[in-house]
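Record type: ASSEMBLY
Status: queued
Input:
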Amino acid sequence: MAAEDSLREGLRVSAARAYGEQRAGEMSKRLGEIAHWLRLVEQQPLDLLDEEPDNNGH
Amino acid sequence: MATDELADATASELARLVNEREASPVEIVEALLARIEAMDSKVHAWETLDREGALRAARALEGTTGELPLKGVPVGIKDIYLTGGLRTTASFPPFANFVPEHEAEAVSRLRRAGAIVLGKTVTTQFALADPPPTRNPWNLDRTPGGSSSGSAAAVGGRMVPLGMGTQTKGSVLRPAAYCGAVGFKPTFGRISRRNVFPLAWSFDTVGFICRSVEDVVLTLGVLAGRDPDDPSSARQPVDDYVEAYDAPRPAAPRLGLVLDYFDRAHPEVRHQVRQTVRKLEQAGATLVELRLPLDFEVVSAVHDLILHVEAAAAHTQLIEREPAGYGPLLRETIQTGQLIPASSYVQAQRLRLRFRNKMDDLLSPVDALLTPTASNVAPGPETTGDASFQAPWTQVGLPAISLPAGVSQDGLPLAVQLAGRRFEEGALLSVARWAEAVIGPLPRPPAP
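Status: finished
Output:
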């Protein structure tokens, strides 16, 4: 699992490539939040065979 | 009847007056237009007022004799619902002059039930969180919340008894709570969302804001039910909510207090809601203390990741065509959402399903879950407030209702929310009816 810093840096590089360095800088706070969310989701145990029943809630 | 009496009346009271010919639809529309005229230069709840259309519809109703569930009840429609022949902007400048030919199914059902569309209420841009011009009728220095900002402010400010909203995170329940109104979000799929602009398909739910549980019952009875042209519309049978409401008063319920919320609430909110809980206990409610089956922070992370990706997908073509029209928060959400890896989106969806199934288990021993609706009272207008307390129900599609529950030391409304089992709105509203009677009414907001 990637560390939060490395997730943030990966997002920053992608943002700079897509929108330019200046825009990536403007979005740095949100990119940091997203890195944190990605880290939290990555940390949850989801086994290869885990599949939750789903009928689209209906 | 006097203008103020008509403006103070709930949707159910107005429908009763019209059906019994004790008030005329024209008189009601004129009274509310006068109220809007007096208030809205300060509150800014309305994006477009349809004076002529509303009066025309009112006059047409006066010529009819049959009873209708919402006959003569004025309604404000959040400006992300398409309204045939009436401007629909989504607070997006390129849509400033967009007049749709088609209409949201929910709006058509309201019209068929006798409701009168008074106009379109202010939304945050495409129902995200760029702050709107709307102010809270209880204190003009505070936000009404969002994204259903105008509907909440108009209902709370007594400009209309019923306002349509949508909830993707907390956009019905929170503004209702901030503005001292009742907010209701049904089970995902219960009400058609056809011809309502999407923000995040996994969560977007049509809901509404009004001033009593009886109004929720009446309105849900009109709106609930399968729409074959909406792929998210559920096939589940619809209860007779009015019959259930009119049934003998239910026994005191068993309520699950979700402690994670009390831990996170502002101290004054926690204290006040604890007092409300004590009142409910003294009236006979059985209280069970519970914890969310997934860490609160993880639930929020799952929600925000899915919302970012789906908002990015929904807007990816429009932002290419009209980049200058976007507000800063929505633009940033779309642009950052485009960077989230697909595998992370899928993992978030897997966790959402797990959370939903565990929430079904959590609800099984109680009639409803009870928490503060919002972490704090309405903040300043630079934000629409914290949606984290309403998001869990939206994430897993549970029906939920927010009820006013007192006033803070600063004179701002406080509220509690009740969440029930999926597709069991009737049972939830029965608990809400009981709780509303125990908690008692909120005073009127001060004149702005």
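Annotation: The mean pLDDT of chain A is 90.
Annotation: The first helix of chain A runs from residue 4 to 19.
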